[in-house]
Structure formats: C-alpha cells, structure tokens
C-alpha cells in the first residue's frame, strides 16, 4: 500500500490540506472555525508558516486526525487522498437509507398533492 501521507511522501501542508478536504471544509470554512484568516491557513497548507501549538490542537480536533499524524504522517489520520479513499461501509449504508427515506417522502408528497386537489375541487363536500 502506498503511504500517501508519510514523512517521506508529504509535508505538513499536504496532510493539512488532505485532511481539510476529507472533512469537506473549504480553506475559508476551516479558517473561520479556527479563528484565523484564510491567508494564514493558506500559508500553513503551502508550508510557508507553521501553526502554534494551540491551533495545531484545534486543527487535529476539527479534522479528526491526530496531532502526530499532522506533523509526521504517523498515527490516526487519512490512508490516502480524499478523492481516492474507499467510502466507509457505514457511510454507504447511511446514504442508501437517506435515498429510501427521500423516496417515501416523495410518495407522501404526491399523495398530499392529490388530496389537496380533491379538497379544492370539492369532491368530498
């Protein structure tokens, strides 16, 4: 298996950007959550600057990775690029359930519309 985020293959900025993308956050969104400017986050992702310890701890918590993984690529973090990682089973089951519920809601919406039309036309008066 290719270790995409190891110390030899990736920088802190690479791991930060990958974890942010996997979390579904934009640079602006993550910067806002951290209370920093988007330019500051961008400089971290481009390895032009490093966050202070308190921000590093916040980053790890918000991105659901360990501080050690952000710094070295070892520990709890991502296995591969966000777009290429396999969808977790629980996520695919949840998506399937959401689609099932959406189908039921669409059926109910159609039934409600028919009943409203009946009432408006005075069929059941």
TrEMBL record:
Keywords carried by this UniProt record: Coiled coil
Domain of life: Bacteria
Transmembrane segments: none
Sequence ranges assigned to domain HTH cro/C1-type in this UniProt record: 16-70
InterPro entries listed in its UniProt record: Cro/C1-type_HTH (IPR001387), Lambda_DNA-bd_dom_sf (IPR010982)
SUPFAM superfamilies (UniProt xref): lambda repressor-like DNA-binding domains (SSF47413)
Single Gene Ontology MF annotation: DNA binding
SMART domains, per database record: HTH_XRE
Sections of the chain in a coiled coil: 98-125
Name of the molecule in the record: Transcriptional regulator
Species of origin: Pseudothioclava arenosa
């Amino acid at each position: 298996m290719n270790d995409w985020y190891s110390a030899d293959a990736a920088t802190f900025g690479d791991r930060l950007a990958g974890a942010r993308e996997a979390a579904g956050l934009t640079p602006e969104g993550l910067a806002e959550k951290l209370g920093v400017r988007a330019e500051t986050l961008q400089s971290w992702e481009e390895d032009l600057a490093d966050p202070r310890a308190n921000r590093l701890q916040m980053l790890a918590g918000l991105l659901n990775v360990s501080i050690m993984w952000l710094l070295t690529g070892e520990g709890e973090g991502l296995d591969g690029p966000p777009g290429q990682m396999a969808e977790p089973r629980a996520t695919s089951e949840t998506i399937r359930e959401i689609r099932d519920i959406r189908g039921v809601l669409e059926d109910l919406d159609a039934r409600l519309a028919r009943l409203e039309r009946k009432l408006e036309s005075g069929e059941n008066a």
